[in-house]
Specification:
The structure is a homodimer.
Chain A: E1 17-21, H1 26-35, E2 40-47, H2 53-66, E3 72-76, H3 78-83, H4 113-128, E4 132-134, H5 150-163, E5 171-173, H6 181-190, H7 213-225
Helix pairs in contact in A: 1-6, 6-7
Chain lengths: 240, 240
């Protein structure tokens, strides 16, 4: 490294500091694995009243332990539950069963969720001196949320540049954005990401349901990669 | 109005719906007054651990009562306190006394605060069907926060367009952005904004201190407009 300005102020670090948004799901697990190659990691987790909040938080801490990450921030983003409107945060709205050919936005969509999450990440990054924010968003092979598209992150980078101090230099990295789920699984296997510690199900906390959007995308990814997914499932359909 | 699609679903409204960020300060008070001319109002208030949180919330409710606003959302944005780094949210950092000729960013700067606030406003707007978000930001005659500049709001509008559902049409309005404080006072007087209900001091809750950045900007505005500010002050310096 030739730029000491990128380094944390702690003095002990030999790598620049990056914040990784770690939901506890497969994508964020692989993203953390990728970031760990070049960066000292700080992990950020958001509780926002999602049904599987407790289980995801467990995965967050498990993945942090795996990578020896001590700098962790867990934020309760209660306003997304207050605001409602999503099956993830409102128990009166049913979690849609997966239809991977569907083109509309599923009921699990939480309005403008990633902007809320990235704003928190930027505030934290500016205080701790991180220059990168990693997020495991996936554009094509995903549920079709508008705030998971590359153009959203590109424009958010412009907002960061205009909305932080002049000397602040923070940009968002989306290393998975154009990968398919099976490529994400394969990437995770290749770089020893602890996929067995991750949790993706939107519905259950003990045994993954196997049929919600998130389970379906994950299982199809493992199946297409020819790899066994070792977390427990209630049912394990074959997806094409 | 010729566009019923802009209207709320309640059926009783004759104006389109707008969310107004109401801190309780003078600028948000005048902004609410401006928005009330053309929009049905929904008021959003953010508690983020600022020193004068209780007093600002009182002003929020008082201004809401003045305009008969029943659709109110108060959100505890606790992560800005968790993250720290500002004299507004960290009692170990002193509130800088005003120096209205200073060009650096004062200690009251909360990193990326307005992005956090606007993200919440957009999430709420998408759920309740509001098309406008009003915020009383001021660019030139202000404390120099980077996220109060027009370019920040312009780029945030692009992020909203890319990060919400395709049919969602939400834009930010900043009617005060290029006004001087005395022009804001005059505008407020002209349209009967309840300035006596607003609160600007960053330091005190009973008597405004008169010397913090926010008090100094407010007092200078009233003095230049030739109008008496009716809220109680501990000291009332003359600013030039």
């Amino acid at each position: 490294m030739d730029s000491s300005s990128q380094h944390s102020h702690s003095g002990n670090l030999t790598k620049p500091l990056a914040v990784v948004l770690v939901s506890g799901g497969m994508d964020s697990c692989v993203t953390a694995a990728i970031a760990s190659k070049e960066y000292e990691l700080a992990f950020l987790h958001l509780n926002y009243g999602q049904r599987t909040e407790r289980r995801e938080l467990q995965s967050f801490h498990d993945i942090a332990s795996y990578y020896g990450v001590s700098r962790k921030l867990v934020v309760d983003v209660q306003h997304l539950r207050q605001i409602g409107g999503s099956s993830l945060t409102d128990e009166h709205i049913e979690v849609t069963k997966a239809d991977l050919n569907r083109r509309d936005i599923p009921t699990s969509y939480v309005p403008f969720r990633n902007a809320n999450f990235l704003s928190i990440a930027v505030s934290w990054s500016e205080i701790i001196g991180a220059n990168k924010i990693f997020i495991g968003a996936v554009e094509e092979d995903s549920s079709g949320y508008p705030d998971c598209r590359e153009v959203f992150f590109q424009t958010f980078n412009v907002v960061i540049a205009t909305g932080t101090k002049p000397l602040t230099d923070i940009t968002i990295e989306t290393p998975l954005i154009h990968l398919k789920k099976n490529e994400i699984v394969q990437k995770g296997i290749d770089i020893n990401a602890p996929l067995h510690l991750s949790w993706s199900c939107y519905q259950n906390e003990e045994q993954a349901c196997g049929v919600c959007d998130s389970c379906a995308l994950r299982l199809r990814g493992f199946q297409r990669a020819g790899v066994d997914d070792k977390i427990p499932y209630r049912v394990k359909p074959i997806y094409h």
